[in-house]
Specification:
695 residues; 5-stranded mixed beta sheet; Jelly Rolls; mainly beta; 58 strands; Immunoglobulin-like
Amino acid sequence: MKTRNIILAVLCTLFATTLYAQKMTMGYLQPAGGQVGTTVEIEAGGLNINRAVKVLFSHPGIKGELKPVKESATTKRKRRRLNDQSSPQLADKMKIVITIAPDVPCGMYDLRLQGPKGVSNMLPFEVASYPNFQENKKSSMGKPNRVNKLPAVLCGYVTPGGVDYFKFSGRKGETIVAAVKGRELVPYIADAVPGWFQPVIKIVDSRGREVAYSDDYHHHVDPVIMATLPKDGDYTLMIHDAIYRGRQDFNYRIHLGVIPFVTGRYPAYGVVGKKVKQDIEGVNLSHTKATAKVKKEGYNRLTYTNDTGTSNAVQFYALPKGTRLLQCPKEGAVLSLNTAIADSLTATSRVKKYKVFLEEKQPLIVELIGRRNDSRIDAVIRLRNEFGKVVAEVDDTEDPMQGLMTFHADPILKYTSRRACEMTLEVEDLHRGYGKDYHYLLRCHRQLPSFNAFVSPANITIPSGGTSSFRVDVTGRLKRPAELSVQGLPKGYTTSSLRLRSGRKWDVSITAPKGAEVKRFPIKVKMNYPGPDGREQADVVPVDKMEQAFYYTHHIQASELALDVTEPSPYRMSVDLDLEKVLRFSVDDKEIPIKVKIEKDPGFNDPVELLLGNKNRLFTLEPISIMPEETEKVINIKLDETVLEKRFKNRKNRPIWQMHIVGTVKGEIVRRGRRTFQNAKYREMTPIFMMQLKK
């Protein structure tokens, strides 16, 4: 039995060492922000982040300097306890000293780490009006963290089964605000259910009696307390996870004090470049009137500032210039292509009605924007004919552009009438709610885009002279091929696989010329699609992908798409194929020969192991290496006859497979707990080529 266990252990170790460590990823920042005009030291936790050489921010007024932790958590092998919720994805740590300029507006900014071979994922970093107060993990109900000066931002993270305590002093009649940022700091956690930190907070007085409690704020996961203190004295704020999970990425920032908090700014809709007079509602406000004027079309975030500090951000949606917008019109207002309507449900009009005029066989498309603009409305749209009969009704429509939203409550109604007529459009909250915060915008469209396209990663890393790739995800299956283009590439750069032929996912490769300058520069990806109503062109939106609860993948929009050119590798790879054409093979083929070429720098003599870059059940490649004396190699991609016969032989539409060959030079072996990984010393790829089964 003992011998059998030893053999199994050896086999597991050998299997594990064939894996390659993942790319540089961040899991948390602690604290995840700092006060404007100050310098703050934070800790970043993640995987392979100790290789970082630079900190990147989405605002030029924020600078960061790296300070590696002397002893990485990965060097210590600890015995895992039964309730251990730790993750090897958070094993590496890095200290960052961040300086925030005095003129940086308060808000959330993107932070990334740049390494010698690539750029990490994005995490939010908050610039706030108030100083950080860092928790002491040894605190308890009997010995809470004492916060001597408010307002402050309480920073920390919860541990498994743990509760964090903060004691502060208050005076009778003060309206204390405790606004938590938890899920906002780490939107999705891959190995947590429901997939994020679910904070719960409570304030008790000196005798332990509850003063206020919150486990969410309207439809937001992060809770907010706005409570008037009943007497002078000490109070204790407690925070924990709803089901008592915990780890460093269950981190939080709590804005605490007699600080401004805006619950709403009305109207919440306007037109780009036009002033909108707003009423402000909330607590600890010195004025309740403001004027909004924005330059950006779509979703904007507005804040309120007084002597105490800057409030939370409130959303404001702006229509394109020239749009006619009716604010809270009378009953029966006409909704048309030229006129949009901004309104809200009231106690006397919980169902709002509008007129629409339909032409014969002309599609009517009505979009409602409410929850996406931070409204509480869970809207339902109904269309009634002249006899009062409901001819169309819509509740929820998913918006792929809202990657942070898990409950899509805004409807889009589509209807085509057989004849010209006048109909009534109704808007109602599904739960019969009403009030100023049940606001919405109605607008008509001739047609909506037939696709949404995303490019990931938002930071593409490519070695000078080498090849890299990015992926385009398309919502909905395209019926016709689409053309992709990459704009902003310097002279000498080439691309392959730009014709998106089918499916929802498509890879594109970029090859940098030999000797390309090592730098970082923005690029854009555009998509042209010959739709049924003419050619559509749209920017492909740069995103970071995040996984939720082991299964769901979300597209989180990034501030820009950038190409990061790094130092060259000692070898470069290509294939002896015409990349503009599709390589076709037949059912009778057993193997597909492909010549792989390699260009090596003088003095490079390591063997390069070749692997298929795109895993597929149909194709396999036996382990093969390019030896030091070789400059090219013919590889034979084998076809699985069973898979070919079962799945593809009788199909009329023959799919196209995108392929590339990866060449790896193995590097150091790293142990992470009981698991063993082998890093790649170098890892390069050929440009992408396409393969298709002949008819």
